[in-house]
């Protein structure tokens, strides 16, 4: 992770400087100082480039004098409207332009200390790289930015605001790593093992294999896994930040509010590779299916974030990890499986496997934990990509209030959600001739029927389902998210918890 | 359309009799209990009673409300299509609900059989022609029905057009059928290809180039009584869509005869406004054109110029509806300066993937207008769902050589959102709603409110929208 420090404003005498600038903002602080020290070079460059300070508009000035190697100026739009998002994105944009500098000072301009920390977050999130498997990179091809100093009048306040944000960034990075790892490395067992490493943060980690899953009656989950030589795993991560700190004290001794002792539950689809099974996918683009575990990846990263920042909440994360392979032992289209809930499912398409895994995990989750709310994340359907593209994830919910909270948390973090419908008419599309339901409802409304399927396993609990098939992986850089694994959901859900479920 | 009467007493003891029961009423009803009829919202049962009379029970679910009464009446009518007359017991229902009985039964009893030349050997011929609703509030119910029947007439007019095969409904024939609306006081203008060429409708004309049937533009005007700019309804009327050079797969291509359902819905809505003498001034602009493959057909990569001067790179000749609408929207905005513009179109396969056969996609630039459209849809049983119209989707339509391209040529694209972003550009600053009805223009199976085939989706919704929002003198 990019090393971040906070200091009072001081013009560096070497290296790089980044300035975040609002529209129509007169020069002040380091911007004015740098302009003075360079004999007006900054102002001249901005005038020549017709810089308007629109959001993420960037001007780079090379060797302007005063010992500086490079000055990067990024717009934040109108300062009065520049909430955390705009500052974060501008800082992320600046970080990308600073990649060739070993160290830099970033001045976010006249902002509150928390926004200086948000700027750090933006820069850190953008600077993430995954180069474990690059063995021959030339040094000049590697980004060099290692240290960033945030300039602010109240560095101590900014630093303490950064603490929890850093924990969230670490959660995001955990997610991006597991999502990026190739499927021969990240099998269900290997993924579970990485989750065990999170125990160092105070998370309680439980891992179950095929034997336990069989005992729990996870017929749908095991049906998906049975074609692969790599065994499935169910990972349960528990964080008791409200009831028991890091100890294993029994939860909910005195219940002031009816829900106060109940945990929040997050459930993730973790298909470490999805060939489609016997209903084999076309070869083109199949490599993308390594990130069919991005839902589980996000849940693990979220739990790491909550534990890392010692969130005052009780939360559980459940990860259904399996590999969907075609083989002599694989399940067939037409098989009927019995889920943990007792409901039977006719598997008409082995490539609609995520919902089979989630069916058992959702049921188990509500049965064991009786959670206040359940939120699942899953790269569930291609249909959601055709519906909403990469701009929004699909949000399905049986609880109006929860849906509104999620939408707001999405807007605050830039992980945007769009509400999609549920309803009786769609549920009927799952009718099977020989079992309680079939696992596909056809191409029309494909994301909705998938959500209806899941809803049959939540037992009436307040529940939301995020279909992240269009947002888990990006083919283009965004200001705070380099292309590749986005960790969509980690910041969104961390924000949801922080805004609504802590200290209450 | 059914002949409908509201009466206090049943004077036709030989006719089929339907009773609509809530779950609570069914639990207290001796006959219902005896035959195990629970009054669920999707339930129906029928049989002869001791006198030999055909009796139908249809369930209302938890309570009698407009939607459940309409659906139950339709369900009952569906069981007695072979009878000449249906009597529905609406005794305890308020006048508004008693009138909905007639709506449901009329929608269900519609049929398109002018091309059937022999009786169906497998069943009784459909004969249902008369409906009698028994109600204490016969005068009030009749007055409500006066209003509601206009919307039903509009929907059935639209269905008649959508059901016609494309060899019998070319753009020219479609236009000729619309001329008949003059009888109801609608002013009808048909603009031919030369007129369109002179005005610069390059996008619409590009779509029509491959066909031997020339395109035209239908402009329907209802004056209303309020002195104000009109509300504008814009309809996609592709009388058949082969996809053009970007030919569609053969499977289910026949459904493309319904690719004019948006234009039909707008025409139906105009008929409804006229029938109930709406005070709201309205104009409908319908782009009627056939998209064929041919020596003159436009090619993927052609660039055309729309009526407002915008150049469009045609990436996919099968994304033709938005080209037709581009010209229609821009011209309507410029020529009629409407207070609001709503287009209805069977526009994308993507909306079918997104919302399936139960809801149309609603894209809007104006939140208040969108809320009224959604409310109107719920009220008449033509539900919609809001979809995003962000700038982000518009950015995908940048062209290398023109102002805009008509779609993104790659798999797994949110094409319904792209199409809406494309249309928005031509609507300018006019409050704008786009309804993508590609999933709801046809139904695969018989339902409570109609047989398999054309639904007329949109006509009743638009009629209700006008009533909800555009009939205040000051509004």
Give structural notes.
The complex is a heterodimer of chains A (504) and B (475). Chain A is α/β, with parallel strands linked by helices. Chain A has 2 domains: 150 residues, Leucine Aminopeptidase, subunit E, domain 1 (3-Layer(aba) Sandwich); 334 residues, Aminopeptidase (3-Layer(aba) Sandwich), CATH 3.40.630. Chain A is 34% helix and 20% strand. Chain A is built from 15 helices and 19 strands. In chain A, the strands form 4 sheets. Chain A has an 8-stranded mixed beta sheet, sandwiched between helices. In chain A, helix 10 runs parallel beside helix 14. Chain B is an alpha/beta fold and 475 residues long. Chain B has 2 domains: 134 residues, 3-Layer(aba) Sandwich (Leucine Aminopeptidase, subunit E, domain 1); 320 residues, 3-Layer(aba) Sandwich (Aminopeptidase), CATH 3.40.630. In chain B, the strands form 4 sheets. An 8-stranded mixed beta sheet of chain B has the order 7-8-10-9-13-17-14-15, with helices on both faces. In chain B, strands 1-6-5-2-4-3 form a 6-stranded mixed beta sheet. A 3-stranded mixed beta sheet of chain B has the order 11-12-16. In chain B, strand 3 and strand 4 form a beta hairpin. The mean pLDDT of chain B is 96.
Number of strands of chain A: 19
| CATH C-level of the largest domain in chain A | Alpha Beta
CATH superfamily of the largest domain in chain A: Zn peptidases
The level of helicity of chain A is 25-40%
Radius of gyration of chain B: 23 Å
Q: Provide the CATH architecture of the largest domain in chain B.
A: 3-Layer(aba) Sandwich
Please name the two chains that share the biggest interface, counting residues whose Cβ lies under 8 Å from a Cβ on the partner chain. Answer: A-B, 27 and 24 residues
> What is the strand content of chain B?
15-25%
Mean pLDDT of chain A: 95
């Amino acid at each position: 992770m990019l090393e971040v420090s906070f200091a009072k404003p001081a013009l560096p005498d070497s290296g790089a400087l980044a300035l975040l600038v609002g529209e129509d903002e007169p020069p002040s602080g380091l911007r004015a100082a740098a302009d003075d020290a360079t004999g007006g070079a900054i102002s001249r460059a901005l005038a020549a480039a017709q810089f308007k300070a629109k959001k993420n508009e960037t001007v780079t000035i090379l060797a302007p004098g005063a010992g500086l190697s490079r000055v990067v100026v990024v717009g934040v739009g109108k300062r009065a409207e520049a909430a955390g998002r705009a500052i974060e994105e501008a800082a992320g944009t600046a970080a990308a332009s600073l990649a060739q500098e070993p160290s830099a000072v970033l001045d976010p301009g006249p902002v509150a200390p928390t926004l200086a920390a948000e700027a750090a977050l933006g820069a850190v999130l953008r600077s993430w790289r995954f180069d474990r498997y690059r063995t021959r990179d030339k040094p000049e091809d590697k980004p060099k930015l290692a240290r960033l100093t945030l300039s602010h009048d109240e560095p101590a306040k900014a630093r303490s605001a950064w603490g929890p944000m850093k924990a969230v960034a670490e959660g995001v990075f955990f997610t991006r790593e597991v999502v990026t790892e190739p499927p021969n490395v990240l099998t269900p067992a290997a993924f579970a093992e990485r989750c065990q490493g999170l125990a160092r943060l105070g998370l309680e980690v439980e891992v179950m294999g095929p034997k336990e899953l069989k005992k729990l009656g996870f017929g749908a989950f095991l049906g998906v896994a049975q074609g692969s030589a790599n065994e499935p795993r169910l990972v349960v991560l528990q964080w008791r930040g409200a009831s028991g700190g890091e100890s294993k004290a029994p939860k909910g001794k005195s219940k002031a509010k009816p829900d106060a002792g109940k945990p929040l539950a997050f459930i993730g689809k973790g298909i470490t590779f999805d060939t489609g099974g016997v209903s084999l996918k076309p070869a083109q683009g199949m490599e993308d299916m390594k990130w069919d575990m991005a839902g589980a990846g996000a849940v693990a990263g979220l739990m790491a974030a909550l534990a890392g920042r010692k969130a005052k909440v009780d939360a559980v994360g459940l990860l259904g990890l399996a590999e969907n392979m075609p083989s002599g032992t694989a399940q067939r289209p037409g098989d009927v499986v019995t889920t943990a809930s007792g409901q039977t499912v006719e598997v008409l398409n082995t490539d609609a496997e995520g919902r089979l895994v989630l069916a058992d995990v959702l049921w188990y989750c509500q049965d064991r934990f009786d959670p206040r709310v359940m939120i699942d994340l899953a790269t569930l359907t291609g249909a959601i990509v055709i519906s909403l593209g990469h701009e929004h994830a699909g949000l399905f919910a049986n609880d109006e209030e929860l849906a509104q909270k999620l939408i707001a948390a999405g807007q605050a973090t830039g992980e945007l959600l769009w509400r999609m419908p549920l309803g009786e008419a769609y549920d009927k599309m799952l009718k099977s001739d020989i079992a309680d339901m079939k696992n596909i409802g056809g191409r029309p409304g494909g994301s909705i029927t998938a959500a209806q399927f899941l809803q049959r396993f939540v037992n009436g609990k307040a529940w939301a389902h995020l279909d992240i098939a269009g947002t888990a992986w990006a083919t283009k850089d965004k200001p705070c998210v380099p292309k590749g694994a986005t960790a969509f959901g980690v910041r969104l859900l961390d924000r949801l918890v922080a805004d609504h479920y802590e200290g209450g | 359309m059914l002949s409908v009467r509201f009466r206090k007493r049943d004077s036709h003891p030989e006719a089929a009799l339907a009773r609509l029961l809530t779950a609570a009423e069914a639990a207290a009803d001796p006959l219902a209990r005896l035959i195990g009829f629970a009054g669920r919202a999707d339930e129906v049962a029928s049989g002869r009673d001791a006198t030999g009379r055909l009796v139908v029970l249809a369930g209302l679910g938890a309570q009698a409300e407009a939607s459940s009464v309409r659906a139950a009446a339709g369900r009952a009518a569906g069981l007695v299509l072979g009878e000449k007359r249906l009597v529905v017991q609406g005794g305890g229902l308020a006048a508004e609900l008693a009138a909905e009985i007639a709506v449901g039964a009329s929608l269900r009893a519609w049929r398109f059989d002018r091309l059937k030349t022999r009786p169906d050997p497998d069943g009784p011929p459909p004969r249902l022609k008369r409906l009698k609703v028994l109600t204490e509030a016969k005068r009030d119910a009749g007055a409500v029905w006066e209003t509601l029947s206009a919307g039903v007439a509009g929907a059935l007019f639209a269905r008649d057009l959508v059901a016609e095969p494309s060899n019998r409904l070319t753009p020219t024939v479609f236009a000729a059928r619309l001329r008949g609306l003059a009888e109801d006081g609608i002013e009808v203008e048909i603009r031919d290809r030369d007129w369109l060429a002179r005005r610069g409708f390059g996008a619409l004309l590009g779509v029509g180039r491959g066909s031997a049937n020339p395109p035209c533009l239908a402009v329907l005007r209802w004056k209303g009584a309020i002195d104000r700019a009109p509300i504008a309804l814009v309809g996609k009327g592709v009388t058949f869509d082969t996809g053009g050079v970007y030919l569609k797969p053969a499977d289910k291509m026949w459904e493309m005869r319904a690719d004019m359902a948006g234009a039909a819905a707008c025409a139906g809505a105009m008929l409804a406004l006229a029938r109930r003498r709406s005070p709201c001034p309205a104009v409908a602009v319908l782009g009627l054109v056939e998209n064929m493959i041919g020596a003159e057909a436009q090619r993927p990569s052609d660039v055309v110029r729309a009526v407002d001067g915008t150049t469009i790179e045609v990436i996919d000749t099968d994304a033709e509806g938005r080209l037709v609408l581009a010209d229609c929207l821009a011209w309507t905005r410029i020529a009629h300066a409407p207070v609001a513009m709503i287009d209805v179109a069977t526009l994308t396969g993507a909306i079918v993937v997104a919302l399936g056969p139960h809801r149309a996609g609603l894209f809007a630039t104006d939140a208040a207008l969108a809320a009224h459209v959604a409310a109107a849809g719920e009220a008449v049983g033509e539900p919609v769902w809001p979809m995003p119209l962000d700038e982000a989707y518009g950015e995908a339509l940048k062209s290398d050589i023109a102002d805009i391209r008509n779609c993104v040529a790659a798999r797994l694209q949110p094409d319904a959102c792209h199409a809406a972003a494309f249309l928005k550009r031509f609507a300018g600053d006019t409050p704008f709603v786009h309804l993508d009805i590609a999933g709801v223009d046809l139904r695969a199976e018989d339902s409570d409110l109609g047989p398999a085939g054309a639904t007329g989706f949109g006509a009743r919704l638009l009629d209700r929208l006008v009533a909800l929002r555009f009939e205040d003198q000051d509004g």
